[in-house]
């Protein structure tokens, strides 16, 4: 029996268009980040209007403040104020110093995302407890539940638009 070797074709790399690599590695500028957020908010408001809702139904300052304060407090307790301040700086256009700082900031973003979801649940429970305290006043039950449930809108928006985006910006800032 003879050994027959079949020639394998050489692997060829598929050429990428000029500038394709640079476009994927660059982080969005602060202006692009602001435009993206503005577009998301504008489209969200338009969809809300099409559904017949009102922006005022979702503009719950206390809910927003409670979710933000619990999230920020937890981040400061776990990572310290300097790293939180550094995350803000990198999110608004500064660059991470090295891969180690990028990893630390990415970890902080993950922590912030989890804390935002946790704060959402806490705010919802606080709202429901308030509703239970006014069960003898039926007119207050509906609005109380509505305020409580807006946390389910505000919290994930903070988690995903805030910390999910910041994590991508941090990862790209070191490249």
What key phrases describe this protein's structure?
73% helix; mainly alpha; single chain
How does this model look, in words?
The chain is an all-alpha fold and 175 residues long. It has two domains: 30-58; 60-173. Helix content is 73%, strand content 0%. It contains six helices and no strands. Helix 3 (61-79) packs across helix 4 (81-91) and helix 3 (61-79) crosses helix 5. The longest helix is centred in the C-terminal third of the chain and has 36 residues, at 138-173. It is flat, with a radius of gyration of 24 Å. The termini are far apart. The relative contact order is 0.14.
Write the layout of secondary structure elements.
Elements: H1 20-25, H2 30-50, H3 61-79, H4 81-91, H5 99-133, H6 138-173
Helix pairs in contact: 3-4, 3-5, 3-6, 4-5, 5-6
Q: What's the count of strands? A: 0
SSE string, helices as H and strands as E: HHHHHH
Major sheet characteristics: none
Portion in strands:
under 5%
Task: Quickly count the helices.
Answer: 6
Ends: how far apart?
55 Å
Mean pLDDT: 82
Low-confidence stretches: 15-25
Q: Number of folding domains?
A: 2
| Rg, alpha carbons | 24 Å
Helical fraction equals over 70%
Kindly name the structural category: mainly alpha
Described by the principal axes of the CA atoms, the overall outline is flat
Brief sketch in words of this structure:
This protein has 175 residues and is mostly helical.
